[in-house]
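Contributing new complexes? Match this layout with iron/sulfur cluster.
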Amino acid sequence: MWKTFFEELGAEVVVSPPTTQVMVSEGSSRVVADTCLPVKVFLGHVLSLVDKCDYIFIPAVRSVKSKIYNCSKFLGLPDMTKAVIPESPPILDIEIDVNKGKRHLYQAIYKLGRHFTWNPFKVRQASLAAWQAHLKYRQLMSSQGLTPPQAIAKMTGEVELKAPTSTQATIALIGHPYILYDEHISHRLIHRLEQADNKVLTPEMLTTEELESATTRLVGKAHWTYEDEVVGAGVHYLETRVDGVIGLMTFGCGPDSQMMDMVHRRAAKLRATTFMSLTLEEHTTEGGVVTRLEAFLDMINRRKRRQIEVCV
Ligand code: SF4
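Output block (do not edit by hand):
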């Protein structure tokens, strides 16, 4: 969405490369140790762009749904970056808070667009094109069962997608997109599951209605922006009886520790689906993740074999 917005305004968009250990270490060196891992990773990405662009775009996303808010670290990202990376190019920071009304949002978008053009009509055109790109991206994921990287690749025509081949088991992954799809942080969990012939489902493959209704069934009204993709997706996949659900969270995340615990309790109550939660941090080793994953898949296979024996 944002790439479309800036390109429509005539800017060249540069994105940071995939996460590496160097980026994690450099990001970590700028903040106190108990900062959550994704913020450290984020700062590493900013550092990787310092000498590659004229501006860095860091929105302060406070709220995208009425009375549902992002975590404080999220909305403080532009200020935090200014404080800990003084060598950063000028930051384009826009506050997104739908609770302040449409007028506030439109003004913020025009203010952002003014860095590139004084023509409000052009900013409006760019916003509409960006919104269309966003709708297409969401629709690709929920209707075709694509992950965000696959949907982006399809929209930009980068790679030809393979049809999912599934035989062993259907495993749902729940958690924030910046953890699930970061191959370095997640230790290529999706790839490992698919290589072992499992079908992988993620929160973005569900519709907004499915996510919201599942969240409501467990906690009532959501308060956190990401409640749907952790609680909503977790409950939905547990109730639809996939073979296993893996909850991925990172060290230092307050909201996740509560939300994942609620999903865990739900799984224990339903007793129909194997559930595992994995907490990742910067020192998590690949060996540790692989061992947990193998044990989890073994458990699912044993359970499936037992079910077949009972049927026979
Ligand atoms: S939701 Fe959790 S992981 Fe994400 S920025 Fe906030 S504390 Fe960090």
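Reviewers usually confirm one structural detail per submission. For this one: The longest strand covers residues 244-250.
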